[in-house]
Amino acid sequence: ALDKAVDALLAKPSVETLTAAREAWKASRVPYQQTEVYRFGNAIVDDWEGKVNAWPLDEGLIDYVAAGYGTESDANALYTANVIANKSIEVDGKKIDATNLTPEFLSGTLQEAGGIEANVATGYHAIEFLLWGQDLHGTGPGAGERPYTDYDLANCTSGNCDRRTQYLKSASDLLVSDLQDMVNEWKDGGAARKSLVDGEPKVGISTILTGMGSLSYGELAGERMKLGLLLHDPEEEHDCFSDNTYDSHLYDAVGIRAAYRGSYTRLDGTVVEGPSVSDMVKEADPAIDKELSDKLDVTVAKMEAIKARALGGEAYDQQIAEGNIEGNATVQAAIDALVDQTKSIERAVGTLKLNAIAFEGSDSLDAPDKVFQ
Length: 373
Description:
Blueprint: H1 2-11, H2 15-33, H3 43-53, E1 88-91, E2 94-97, H4 103-110, H5 124-132, H6 161-186, H7 191-197, H8 201-231, H9 245-261, E3 263-265, E4 271-273, H10 277-284, H11 286-311, H12 316-319, H13 325-351, H14 363-366, H15 368-371
Antiparallel strand pairs: 1-2, 3-4
C-alpha cells in the first residue's frame, strides 16, 4: 500500500496524494514495529534491520536542509552531501558517480557511506524524510511540512524534482524488497525460522525472551525514550519528521506482549495464535506468568496515554520538552513500566530454568551522567 501510494504521489503530485502517501507510511509502521521484538538475540534479523529502520539519520546526505542544520560535521564528511542535488559525491576521498539514484546505488553505495551509521540512505526513515521534510518546529507544535511541489516536475520547488522523484521511488521499491527478504527468512525452510525452530528448544525460548527484554529495556526504554527525555531533544525521537513516534513506541510494546502470549492481531482484525512462552511460564509458575502478563498490559496502557496526548494536540517531541512537567511525566511513566516489565521477564527466565540472559542496556538508564559528557 505504501509503494502504491508513493507511485500515485509521483504520478500526480498534489496535497491529496502526498497526504495519502504519508498516511500509508504511518499505517505500514503498525505491523512493522510489532516485529522489532524478534530482532534482538536473532542475528539474521539484527543484521538486516539497519536497511529498513536505521535512525537517527543525517538527512543532509539525502536532500536540502534548513540553515539551522549546519553545514558540516566533524563526525561525517557527507553531513550535507545532498545527493539529490549533486550527481557526484566524494566518499573516503574517492569521487562517486551519483547520476542514477537506483535502488542498487542507495543500498550498495550510499547506505552507511564512509562507514558512518548516520548515513541512512534507505528504509522507513529515509522515506519519512522524503515525505515530510525536516520538522523545524523543535519542541513546538507541528511536523515536517515538505510541499507536494517538491515532486511536481512542472512546478518544481527546491529544485531537482526529477532526482527527488527517482530517489523516493528507489527507496520505496527497496523497502518492499527488503521486507520481502525477511518474509522469506521466516517461511518454512527460511534461515530465521530454521535457526529458531530446529535448534535446542531452550535456546529458542531464550531467543524470544532476549528479544522481549532487550527491546523493553535498552532499546525502547533507554535509547528511544529516556535519552530524548534526559536531553529534551526532539532530534532523539524515533519518527522525528512525521511526529508519529507515539505510534511506533506503542506498537513496539504491543509486539512484545504478542510475542509473549503467542497471539498477533492482523490489520484486518483477525488473530493468529498458537502455543506461547506464556503457556510455559504459567505451567511452571502461574503467579509469575500473571505478573508478567499484567505488566505487559500496564506498559501498553502507558503507551496509549502518550498516544492520547499526541492525538489531543501535544506531539511526542512536545511531551519531552524541557518544562513540560505533565508531558515528561507521561513519557517517564511508560519508561518506568518498560523497566518494570523487564524485571518480570528476568523472573520468567529463571522460572523456566534458562541460562541467565544479558539484555541490552543503555547509558541513559544505567549511567545517565555519561549522556551529558
